[in-house]
Specification:
By secondary structure, this protein is α+β, with helices and mostly antiparallel strands. The chain is built from eleven helices and 18 strands. The strands form seven sheets. Strands 6-5-7-8 form a four-stranded antiparallel β-sheet.
Length: 430
């Protein structure tokens, strides 16, 4: 539990700190007096004053704030030049946008750090080792054992090439050339924006990560172990491991694996879940809750930053695609999460490795930056709407109008948080 608590506080603390730091630095640079810089809400745990600003760490860790003179509707009476409301619309806009921009910059830096220190997965072939049920890949007719050799006539030699080519054609029907049982066939992949292809590369039966609390974790499997047999059936490839294991839905299974040349055998009851295929067929399958091992390649500093920028751009597009799904009413409750889910996932990622926790942090940083731009009062996007109205009307909204809209925005945000928290808790209940 301490791992979960520490990971949650670290993730939220870093994201909030960078977001508020963006507001703070641009406000200071613009000559605006900052009265308080707080990580967290409520009563301060620690408070330290330097110059005009009091720096705080407060008890409620679900956010933070930068309090600027003249920012609140009730604090707009003074005419001092260092007040927020006395600055021009472009200056105030820069201060407001600096928070989301800081989150995007943080994501780039985190991805670059991961790629430099831990590396990026290296693809070695185009052979498919898994096709997710109900995914675009299954709908296209892709099968385990297929090797994708071209995307609309452009040759590909591994999964890296494959996904690079596919990413350029998202939202269209993509012809894939596939080698199957010594013959070449063509399938049509219809990939909507925001949806995963649904395939994994074939690999050896070596464990890449173990889901905390899952059957493999209870059994004692660790990253780097190689599974050699399931219930006496020898396995050497991940697809064979998966297919052999998935049939073991009754009781315990016997797993044999090697670690540092030593053979180990153990028994455990796997998790049994239901999967629904594209044809509507539901079947029970057993899972150890492990992920395959992938070789990693460390990048140079410059290449890490370039790749970090590209990954951040991809995540930004994915978040906007997801928001489109949400606002068109096609999102399910399983697709959204709040503080409870962040708490759960951050602990799980921390147990898999610090790099996995940083990956989660980078992804959430992009989400925080973009969601803060939604045009809801009390969010940065709501403030931008106020500034846009002021620029058009050539005068700001009245104090009463802003106060009322911010109260409505606060109610909306609290309602959304309550809703996603109910969804989160519901997923945890049996």
């Amino acid at each position: 539990m301490l791992t979960y608590i520490f990971s949650f506080i670290l993730v939220i603390g870093v994201l909030v700190f960078f977001h508020e730091l963006g507001h703070f630095l641009v406000a200071k640079r613009s000559g605006i007096r900052v009265e308080a810089f707080s990580i967290g809400f409520g009563k301060p745990i620690v408070a330290l004053r330097r110059g005009d600003t009091e720096y705080r760490v407060s008890w409620i860790p679900f956010g933070g704030y930068v309090k600027m003179s003249g920012e609140d509707p009730e604090d707009c009476e003074g005419d001092e030049p260092w007040r927020f409301h006395k600055k021009s619309v472009p200056v105030r806009s820069a201060v407001i946008l600096a928070g989301p921009v800081a989150n995007i910059v943080l994501a780039v830096l985190l991805y670059a750090l991961i790629f430099r220190v831990w590396g990026v997965p290296v693809s070695v072939s185009g052979e498919i080792g898994y096709v997710g049920p109900g995914t675009p890949a299954e709908e296209a007719g892709l099968r385990v054992g297929d090797t994708v050799v071209d995307v609309d006539g452009i040759p590909v030699s591994n999964f890296d090439d494959l996904f690079d080519r596919i990413s350029e054609r998202v939202g269209t029907v993509i012809p894939l050339g596939v080698e199957r049982d010594g013959e070449r066939v063509t399938v049509s992949l219809d990939l909507p924006r925001g949806e995963a292809v649904g395939i994994l590369e074939e690999s050896e039966s070596r464990v890449g990560s173990v889901i905390a609390g899952g059957p493999a974790d209870r059994l004692g499997l660790k990253r780097g172990d190689t599974i050699t047999a399931v219930n006496g059936t020898a396995v050497t490839r991940w697809s064979a491991l998966r297919s052999t294991l998935e049939k073991a839905v009754d009781g315990e299974v016997e797993i044999r694996w090697t670690r540092n040349g030593e053979s180990i055998t153990g028994r455990v009851a796997p998790d049994v879940i239901e999967e629904k295929g594209v044809d509507g067929t539901v079947k029970k399958i057993a899972k150890l809750q492990i992920k395959p091992y992938q070789p990693m390649k460390r990048l140079g500093t410059v290449e890490s930053v370039i790749q970090g920028t590209q990954r951040t751009t991809f995540v930004v597009r994915s978040v906007f695609a997801f928001l489109k799904v949400v606002f068109t009413g096609h999102a399910s409750r399983e697709m959204v999460g709040g503080p409870v889910q962040i708490f759960q996932v951050s602990g799980q990622q921390a147990k898999e490795g610090f790099d996995k926790l940083l990956l989660l942090m980078a992804f959430l940083s992009v989400q925080l930056g973009i969601l803060n731009l939604l045009p809801i009062p009390v969010l940065d996007g709501g403030h931008m709407v106020f500034l846009a109205a002021e620029a058009i009307r050539r005068k700001p909204l009245s104090i009463n109008q802003r106060a009322l809209l911010q109260q409505i925005g606060l109610i909306v945000i609290l309602g959304l948080m309550a809703t996603v928290t109910v969804f989160d808790v519901g997923r945890l209940l049996p």
